[in-house]
Write a structure and sequence with these properties.
Elements lengths: L1 H34 L8 H16 L3 H8 L3 H13 L11 H14 L3 H7 L4 H16 L2 H4 L24 E4 L31 E3 L10 E2 L20 H26 L12 H20 L20 H16 L20 H16 L10 H15 L5 H22 L5 E3 L4 E3 L2 H10 L18
Parallel strand pairs: 1-2, 2-3
Antiparallel strand pairs: 4-5
């Protein structure tokens, strides 16, 4: 009994000592804290107000700037934010309003920017951008039932009752096409992303319009092969036979699906052959969200990102006065060239002065050659160059060789490559009607200062674009 009492007293004494030491530690810590200068922070509302002022003065100042930065004009943008707020899909955080959350998301997908770039533009941390990107992505996905509808089994109104298409395309319920959106997937599922019409069921008696890459079988109607098809291949040349007439009307209908893919890619650069840097599940959600936003944009009216509905893209026909001016320019340039022998050279073997009208004729001839069904998938052959040289010789009364045509064509290939690069610039808008790459004034001046040679292709119609 005595031993137990001694043990109990020792435990009580130990507990008392522990409490005393803990009290001393707390007292010492409080004294040290009082001596150490405290770190002070500026009021959060002042910093938040500075960020709002930046958005108001830089992004929401005018429709042009808002469209260039966020891919929407101000009114549709604020209406979208209102929809997400009213439905409880997004809400203001203590230091980040819904408008800022949506703006950061649209800036990312509109220009395919990394989170660190958006964090710098919006004066936020990398983690904040990442968190709210996922929140906005999920919120926009919740609008899918309203802005994405299932395919209809009825003939479109564009066909029904239209003498150009009805009854020739009676039973058509739509068009199928593919577009390339890069994805990062594992090796074992790569084959699933290469097959066409995978799992697609077509009702009996109905069919889809498809391109020549699909086989002709029940449910799928492709065009005639080795016959002019795309609208820009017709120019001012009329239809020659029944197959060409069918292809023309087939293309006039199927161009709708090409516009449907082209418009979202113009608006959201993250879809336009951009290297993905999100997990695959997020990549899928981004594509769906961009489609939802595109359909929302259609409900708000047509803007410059939406490709206009043009069923015939004709090459401009030059008047007799313009042709005469071209001819005079040709003669003026030829007068300054010393023509010797039968080759039409300028004293140096293989050299010749190419005028604008000669280039126009060469590109037009080769474009017509492609439209006629000539096999040029691996490039033009010597026989094509010789045919073009013969046509140029007959029209301009000078002697040209196929090698000279081939060398001149290399110049236009380089120009075409540069145009394709400029069309993919962040903030660049493509005007199909005028063949023009549009940049805002500020962006145009900055780019041309760095790349002066590009000024000939920006904010001005690109000559010979359709022929190229």
């Amino acid at each position: 009994m005595g031993k137990r009492m001694d043990k109990r007293k020792k435990m009580i004494r130990g507990a008392a000592v522990f409490v005393a030491l803990a009290a001393v530690a707390v007292l010492v810590r409080s004294i040290v804290r009082k001596r150490r200068p405290r770190i002070t922070y500026g009021p959060m509302h002042e910093r938040d107000q500075q960020r709002i002022d930046y958005l108001n003065s830089k992004i929401w100042q005018c429709d042009v700037t808002c469209r260039n930065m966020l891919r929407f004009e101000r009114a549709p943008f604020f209406r979208l934010c209102g929809i997400l707020r009213e439905r409880g899909l997004l809400e203001n955080s203590p230091h980040l309003c819904v408008e800022q959350q949506v703006a950061m998301f649209l800036h990312t997908v509109g220009h395919n920017l990394r989170n660190r770039d958006v964090a710098t533009n919006f004066c936020r941390s990398f983690g904040t951008i990442s968190i709210y990107f996922r929140r906005v992505l999920h919120a926009i996905g919740q609008l899918r039932n309203e802005y994405i509808r299932a395919p209809s089994m009825e003939t479109p109104t564009k066909i029904a009752g239209n003498h150009r298409f009805d009854p020739y395309f009676k039973g058509c319920i739509g068009a199928i096409d593919g577009t390339h959106v890069r994805a990062s997937v594992t090796k074992d599922v790569e084959h699933s992303f290469r097959e066409r019409e995978r799992g697609l069921q077509v009702p009996p008696g109905k069919f889809y319009l498809v391109d020549a890459g699909y086989g002709a079988k029940p449910g799928f109607l492709p065009p005639f092969r080795q016959t002019r098809y795309h609208l820009n291949e017709w120019g001012s040349n009329p239809v020659q036979n029944a197959n060409e007439l069918f292809n023309l009307r087939h293309s006039s209908l199927r161009v709708t699906i090409e516009r449907a893919f082209g418009s979202p890619k113009r608006r959201f650069k993250i879809l336009d052959d951009a290297k993905p840097f999100f997990p695959f599940s997020v990549q899928v959600d981004i594509v769906v969200a961009c489609c939802i936003l595109h359909n929302y944009a259609l409900s708000q009216g047509v803007d410059e990102f939406i490709i206009p509905d043009v069923t015939w893209t004709a090459q401009p026909i030059r008047t007799q006065r313009q042709q005469a001016a071209d001819h005079r320019a040709t003669l003026d340039q030829m007068d300054n060239v010393e023509v010797s022998g039968a080759s039409g050279n300028t004293g140096k073997s293989g050299l010749i002065v190419w005028t604008n009208s000669m280039s126009t004729k060469m590109l037009g001839f080769l474009a017509d050659l492609v439209a006629s069904g000539a096999r040029t998938s691996s490039g033009f052959k010597s026989v094509h160059h010789n045919q073009c040289a013969k046509a140029l010789t007959e029209q301009f009364k000078i002697s040209l060789t196929g090698d000279q045509v081939s060398n001149h064509l290399k110049k236009w290939r380089k120009i075409w490559g540069r145009i394709v690069h400029l069309k993919n610039l962040s903030g660049a808008l493509w005007d199909e009607d005028t063949s023009m790459i549009r940049l805002s004034d500020e962006h145009y001046v900055g780019h041309c200062n760095a790349f002066k040679a590009d000024a000939a292709f920006l904010n001005t119609p690109i000559e010979h674009y359709r022929a190229m």
